[in-house]
From TrEMBL:
Keyword list, A-Z: NAD, NADP, Oxidoreductase, Stress response
Family matches, as InterPro entries: 6-PGluconate_DH-like_C_sf, 6PGD_dom2, 6PGDH_NADP-bd, HIBADH-like_NADP-bd, HIBADH-related, HIBADH-related_NP60_sf, NAD(P)-bd_dom_sf
Family of the protein in this entry: Belongs to the HIBADH-related family. NP60 subfamily.
Pfam families xref list: NAD_binding_11, NAD_binding_2
One annotated Gene Ontology cellular component of this protein: cytoplasm
Protein name: Glyoxylate succinic semialdehyde reductase chloroplastic
Species this protein is from: Micractinium conductrix
């Protein structure tokens, strides 16, 4: 995700400085014209606005707060936009580190996967410092098709977790439907066409149905990240005393798929947790 988003900024003519824990992953961006930094702090030192796209809460905290992390070079006039999917507590901790160094903080997790990231069609779910949202708007416009400002720190993270919890349950349900259709002798391709025309038509079902029927799960949204989002959404449910029985059941399927070795496959590989073995 970070690669596609940064590449769009380079293509739009911005001076982009990149860092990644595994440095080789910066090579293609360097070839496209980005400058490569040695640490997150070095990125922040070079830039007015720094974007972070990282896997999970642990990664976001590490990159923001390590001795050579982003907060170490934060200063008044600089902004940090974390577009990773994390929980509100992590967003608050990163915000505190950035703000205590005088910087501004925006969380802006994204809806949309690899394709929308490449096409500049992401949806940003932002919260935090409104002035930074306004300053970052031209960048978000390059990378996305819509940006929402949802309020104080945590609101963007919570919105993203609600959206991905719904998506995870829908995908698990779709996997069950495709599997049941097959078991009763129906063509899965017919199910895809029937669903496409009715009230439960859904771009995700249309996109993923054919490849799921073939047992192909080339990663767009890795299953380990979907399971992380289910876990974080369930924790949010506990905190809010909101029952989430469907999401809890779906989470067990994603955990089963992870245990079966599908962590780095697309999240549609949840199919393997429900499909009856012939
Ligand atoms: N893929 C998708 O479709 C979407 C993903 N998201 C969210 O975006 C985020 C990134 O997703 P995606 O790009 O797919 O994930 P990837 O797994 O491809 O990339 C994760 C990135 O995080 C880095 N990272 C992980 N742990 C650490 C750490 N401890 N310290 C420093 N860097 C670390 C990785 O570095 P390294 O290369 O060294 O491993 C890599 O750059 C996740 O929060 C995900 O939930 C949101 C919308 C869509
Ligand atoms: O977090 C991943 C979201 C994927 C999507 O919105 O298609």
């Amino acid at each position: 995700m970070g690669y596609a988003m940064a590449l769009n900024l380079v293509k739009a003519g911005y001076e982009v400085v990149v860092w990644n824990r595994s440095p080789a992953k910066c090579d293609a961006l360097a070839a496209a014209g980005a400058q490569v930094a040695a640490t997150p702090a070095e990125v922040v030192a070079c830039c007015d606005i720094t974007l972070a796209m990282l896997s999970d809460p642990e990664a976001c905290l590490a990159v923001a707060t390590a001795p050579d992390g982003a907060a170490a070079a934060m200063a008044p006039g600089k902004g940090y936009v974390d577009v990773s999917t994390v929980d509100a507590a992590t967003a608050a901790a990163v915000a505190a580190a950035v703000r205590s160094a005088g910087g501004a903080y925006l969380e802006a997790p994204v809806s949309g996967s690899k394709g929308p990231a490449e096409q500049g069609q992401l949806i940003f779910l932002s919260a935090g410092d409104k002035q930074l949202f306004e300053a970052a708007a031209p960048l978000l416009e390059v990378m996305g098709k819509a940006s929402f400002f949802l309020g104080d720190v945590g609101a963007g993270a919570n919105m993203k977790l609600v959206v991905n919890m719904i998506m995870g349950s829908m995908m698990a349900s779709w996997a069950e439907g495709l599997s049941l259709a097959k078991q009763c002798g129906l063509q899965q391709s017919d199910l895809v066409e029937v669903v496409k025309l009715g009230a439960i038509a859904c771009p995700m079902f249309a996109l993923k149905g054919p490849t799921m029927a073939e047992g192909q799960y080339a990663p767009a949204f890795p299953l380990k990240h979907q399971q992380k989002d289910m876990r974080l959404a369930l924790a949010l449910g506990d905190e809010m005393q909101q029952e989430l029985p469907l999401a809890a059941a779906a989470n067990e399927l994603y955990k089963r798929a992870r245990a079966a070795g599908y962590s780095d496959s697309d999240f549609s590989a949840v199919m393997e947790a429900v499909a009856k073995k012939d």
